[in-house]
């Protein structure tokens, strides 16, 4: 692996984001390895005792990866105590102990390897969340917070795993999911940031935005699928190579347009937001009115409901857990919908209005067919909400992420009362 001046692509964005988060770079994330990136790499290499070539070679990349994952390995010496280890590596004691939960006293770890958690956050919000980036985040979070459970609820056509994160041990089960839409990677980042902050607050035994996190942990079980459509997001962020078996079809379905500006579907050209078994035929009829009758970049729900592995995985997760409430996050709208087709549960409207009050979003009463939210309400007779963030006609700019997070944290925590 080698990146140098002139290199381009999402991988360069990740490297630039990493250098920015550590203070080696103070300009925008461009995805182009230019002079400022080369200089930032040199500074980083010097700080790690490497030859300052300005080229991201294998050794440099391995060090970057270690910091990205948020931990190092250390063999405990005879004279060490937990406090001495904290002082040596400038890490937090609570996080150090949590990261090494399998051990008890310091005597148990003499001459053994332990995890040294870095101070930096694992979830970085300066670049769009790709599938590989999400996987690294989950790996790093699982090591830092071993109480965080996760499982694979399914795989995509391209064999990408669909992750479900579990937090808490309460009887009330709540389901959050994001990014049915390939254009919605920022909502994956939103949920990953929430997961990290939630785990951090629980570890530090402190309130989370004024909420008693320990009480919430014992009352609720949160199941979170941060990325429903990894294949679609990959196409949106990185395009598609000629080696991909779907290449010619994808290019045709996208009408040779820029993938980053309009690819919503999964890799088989199915709009996952329309593939659930609720008023599915009506949804097909509505798509036909838009002259969409076959696989496309958006608005085609498929031949039949649940014909796609992603929607089957979500349905499986619902059936296994029997959730009490659900939030579905995607982009384009700045609104919240709570009805299934054109019906609703009485309790749902009150909560939707509460979410609107804390976020500034509007109620969306538009009829929906084949959606995840509508399917959940219809099948389980429990409240569910579809939250669309960002301008209705424009992809969310990553520079607006902090504002997005501040707006939505009150919704994500507002469910847990």
From TrEMBL:
Keywords per UniProt: Hydrolase, Metalloprotease, Protease, Zinc
GO molecular-function terms, A-Z: metallocarboxypeptidase activity; zinc ion binding
Residue intervals of the Peptidase M14 domain: 127-417
GO CC terms of this entry: extracellular space
Listed GO biological process terms: proteolysis
Domain of life according to the entry: Bacteria
Transmembrane segments: none
Pfam families, A to Z: Peptidase_M14 (PF00246), PG_binding_1 (PF01471)
InterPro entries: ENP1_M14_CPD (IPR034274), Peptidase_M14 (IPR000834), Peptidoglycan-bd-like (IPR002477), PGBD-like_sf (IPR036365), PGBDSf (IPR036366)
Entry cofactors: Zn(2+)
UniProt KW Zinc keyword: yes
UniProt similarity note: Belongs to the peptidase M14 family.
Name of this chain's protein: G-D-glutamyl-meso-diaminopimelate peptidase
Protein species of origin: Clostridium collagenovorans DSM 3089
